[in-house]
Amino acid sequence: MNAFMPPTRLLMGPGPSNVAPEVLAAQARSTIGHLDPDFTQLMELIKEQLRLAFRTVNRITFPLSAPASLAMEMALVTLLEPGDKAVVAQNGVFGGRMADIARRAGAEVRLVSCEWGRPVDLDAVRAAIRESPEAKLLAFVHAETSTGAWSDAAALCEMAREAGMLSIVDTVTGLGGIPVLVGEWQADVVYSGTQKCLSAPPGLAPITFSERAVATAKTRKSPIQSWFLDLNLMLGYWDGEGGRSYHHTAPVNALYGLHESLTRLLGEGLETTWARHLAAHEWLAERLQELGFVFVVEKEFRLPQLNTVWLPEHMEDAPVRRRLLDEFGIEIGGGLGPLAGRIWRIGLMGETCRIENVNRLADAIATILPQRSRATTLRCNQIERTLNCG
Amino acid sequence: MNAFMPPTRLLMGPGPSNVAPEVLAAQARSTIGHLDPDFTQLMELIKEQLRLAFRTVNRITFPLSAPASLAMEMALVTLLEPGDKAVVAQNGVFGGRMADIARRAGAEVRLVSCEWGRPVDLDAVRAAIRESPEAKLLAFVHAETSTGAWSDAAALCEMAREAGMLSIVDTVTGLGGIPVLVGEWQADVVYSGTQKCLSAPPGLAPITFSERAVATAKTRKSPIQSWFLDLNLMLGYWDGEGGRSYHHTAPVNALYGLHESLTRLLGEGLETTWARHLAAHEWLAERLQELGFVFVVEKEFRLPQLNTVWLPEHMEDAPVRRRLLDEFGIEIGGGLGPLAGRIWRIGLMGETCRIENVNRLADAIATILPQRSRATTLRCNQIERTLNCG
Predict the structure, then answer these.
(1) How many angstroms separate the CA atoms of A156 and A163, rounded?
(2) Closest CA of chain B from A66, distance in Å
(3) Whole-number mean pLDDT of chain B?
(4) In Å, what is the CA distance from B238 to each residue of A92, A336, B76, B175, B246?
C-alpha cells in the first residue's frame, strides 16, 4: 500500500487550522518514553506554557491526552455528582453537548436556552441562577464554534462566583485567538483544544483547574464515573510530587508539537496574536461584505477567529464548498445542527490567520459567486435572522 | 524558548516502542481537515487495515482518538449498564483496572484473582462463570503488560460464549506481536494501543466490536454514561452511511502515522512479524539466562514482546535503569504495583524487536552487572516466586 500523501490545503474552517512546518517537524522527532526524565522536563515546560497561555497560576494545568470533547466531559464529571444541579447556558451546539454530558453524569440540568448566533444572555443566566440557588455550577461556552458568537466570560464567571457556584468555561476556539484570562475571571475549570488558534494538530485538550475545583474533586462523596478522567488519579501523572506515577501513556509526539506551537504563540506574545486575529477578521469582514455577505453575529459579539455568514440565496452549500476545496485548495466549514446548509463558518485561527489568506479566500469566493450577486447585498437564506434553536 | 530535542533512545520498555522514520515522517505531513474527502478515504483505509490486523471482518473497527485506557473504558461502559454483573479476570495491573472501570459503570464485579505472572486461570474463570450464570460479560487481559503473561484468549472467549456471555479482550500489548484472532475467537470487543507492537506514537487505540456488541449498545435501557464513548454517537463519525456526521475532531496527523505503521505491519505480514517477535524473544531469553537472570513467567506463557525478569539480589532498580538510559541510551521498564522494584520489564515490540537490539541491551547489562554475578545463576529478589497480589 502506498503512503498517504495529504493534499495541500488552506484550512479556513472551524478547525483544524494550518499547522506551522516547525510544529510538524517537532512531531516527527524520535519518540521517547513517557516516563523518561527528558519527557518529564517537557511535561513541566508545557504545563508552564499553558499557564501563560491561559493567564493563570493554577497549579493543575495540563494537556489532556484526548480531544477537547473529552476535556468538556472531564470538567463536568469532575465537579458534578449524581443529583447535583447545574445551570448550563446554550447558545449553540456545544452548550447543548455540555448539558447532555451533565445529564449523563446524573446531574439535574437547568438549561438556559439563548439565541444561536448571539452571546450567552446575561440576564437569562442571572434569572436562572436566582431560581436555582442550590446549583453547584454554571457551565457555558466562551467562543461558540458552531455560531461564531463571543460570550462575556468575565461577567458569567463573576455571576457564578457571587452565587457561590463553580464555573466551567469552554474556550476550545478561544485560546490563542482572543483574551482567555482564567486568573482574572477566577474561573474554575477552563479547557481548550490544540487544533484551533494554537495551530497544533488535533488530539490534545489543554485544561486548567482552580484550587476550588481540585478541592471539589478531592472531597467528592461518589467516585468519578470515568476512570480515565478521574482527576485524583491523573494528578499522580501530571502533578506527581516526588516522582510521577503511571496512569496512561501520554501521546509523546503530539506533545512535542504542542510544545512547539506554544513556544510560537508565547514568542509572538498573546496581545500581538489577539491583535493579529482582530486585524485579519476586520479585513475579512470588509472583503465579505463587499461581496454582499451578511454576518450571522452582530459586530460587537463576533469572534475574530470564527466568522459566520449567511449563505447567499440560491447558492448551494456543499457543492460550493467542494469547489473551493477542489479548485482553490481552501477548506471552509458548513453549519452545524439547525444551521447546516444555512451558514458558512470561516476560520482565521492561529497560523491560518493572515491577510494573504483572507485575500485568497475572498478572491476565490468572488470567482465562484454568480456575477449578478456581486457588489450588491445578497438576499440571504435567512427565513429567521435570529434563531432560537434551543 | 528553544525547541525540544528529544534524546535518541532504544525503547525496550513496556511501550512506547521505537517508531520507524517512515511513520514519523508520515505524522509530519501537512494537516488536512477531519471532514476532508481525502481524510475520509484515509479513515476507510485505516479501518480496513485494522480489520486485517485484528483478523476480523467486524464492520465496526476503528482507532479510538485516545489512549488505550480509554478504549478499555469504552468497551466496558458500552456493554455494561448499572446493575449488570461482570466476571473480570485479574492477573496483573490491567485486569484490576478493568474491574475498577466496571464498578464505576455501576456493574457488580465478580473478580477472579489469579496469580500475577501467570496466565488467567481457566479453571477459576470456569468456576466463576458457573457461579454467575446471570453475568453479562467476561473481561480479561490477553497480554498482561504488567507481568508479561500470555493468556488463552480463544479458550476464554469460548467459555464466555458457551455461557451466553459477551467477551472483552484487552490486547494492548498483543496486537502485532502475537496472534490476535478476533474472528476465530468470536470475541465481542477487542482493543489495543498504537505504541506497543504497532510502533506508532502513543495516543490512539484500535478497537473492534462484534455485531452482538453493537446490538447490545443499540438496545441499552440506559444511556452510555460517557458522551465521548457513546458508540451510538461515534458510529455516525466512523461509520456514517451516506456521509459522516461531526462528532469530535480526529487526531489527523496521528492517524497518518498509524496508517503508515499498519502499512508496514501488513507489508511484512502478520505471521512473519509474529515469528520475528518469537525469534528475538528466544535470543533475549538465552542472553539473559546466560547473565543469570530468571524469568518471572513460565516458558510456555511468556509474551515474546514483553519479557519480565526478577531483579538480581542487591541490584537496585531505578539507579541501574537510569544507568542504562544515561550511559547506553536504552530504556527498559520497572515493575508496576506489587512488582515495583522487584522485576524489570523488557519490551521487544514492533520496530524495537530486532536481534541487534537484544545484543545491545544484553551487552549493556553485562557491563553494569557486578562481575561476581556473571555466568552464575543470580539469587533473585524473590521472596515469593509466585505471587498472589489480587
Answers:
(1) 11
(2) 5
(3) 94
(4) 23, 18, 19, 21, 10
Q: Closest approach of chain A CAs to the CA of B357, in angstroms?
A: 16
**Residue in chain B nearest A228 by alpha carbon:** B70
b/e sequence A299-335, b meaning 16+ C-beta within 10 Å = eebbbbbbbbbbbbeebebeebbebbbeebebbbbbb
> Residue type at B98?
M
Predicted local confidence at residue A371, as pLDDT: 61
- pLDDT per position as a tens digit, B198-229: 999 999 999 999 999 999 999 999 999 999 99
- Phi, psi angles (nearest 5°) of residue B386: -105, 135
Beta strands per DSSP E along A91-183: 108-113, 137-141, 166-170
Task: Give yes or no for residue B112 having a pLDDT over 80.
Answer: yes
Length of chain A equals: 390
d(Cα A87, Cα A83) in Å, to the nearest integer? 13
Superfamily of domain B270-373: Aspartate Aminotransferase, domain 1 (3.90.1150.10)
pLDDT tens sequence across A359-378:
999 999 999 987 655 444 45
Residue B106 backbone class (left: φ over 0; alpha: ψ -120 to 50; beta: rest) = left
Low-confidence stretches of chain A (pLDDT < 50) are: 374-377, 379-390
Region class of B258: left (phi > 0), else alpha (psi between -120 and 50), else beta: alpha
What are the domain boundaries of chain A?
21-266, 270-373
Mean pLDDT on B58-74 = 98
Candidate from B22, B203, B331 with C-beta closest to A65: B203
Q: What is the pLDDT of residue B314?
A: 82
ipTM confidence score: 0.95
CB-closest option in A13, A30, A73 to B8: A30
Instruction: Say if the Cβ atoms of B249 and A195 lie within 8 Å.
Output: yes
Q: What is the pLDDT of residues A293-330, one digit of tens each?
A: 999 999 999 999 999 999 988 889 999 999 999 999 99
Query: Which among A104, A254, A260 has the least Cβ separation from residue B227?
Result: A104
Asked if omega into B37 is within 30° of 0 (cis), the reply is: no
Order of strands, edge to edge, in the sheet holding A85-90?
A60-64, A205-209, A189-191, A166-170, A137-141, A85-90, A108-113
CA dihedral (B15, B21, B24, B28) in degrees, to 10, reads 170
CA end-to-end span of chain B, whole Å? Answer: 47
Q: Which of A281, A385, A262 is nearest to A12 (CA)?
A: A281
Continuous segment of H or E residues that includes residue B54: helix B37-54
Q: Would you call A27 and B253 a contact, using CB atoms and an 8 Å cutoff? A: yes
Q: What is the pLDDT of residue B373?
A: 52
CATH class of B21-266: alpha beta
Residues in chain B: 390
Question: Which letter does DSSP use for residue A166 in this model?
Answer: E
Give the whole-angstrom CA distance, residue B308 versus residue B291: 14
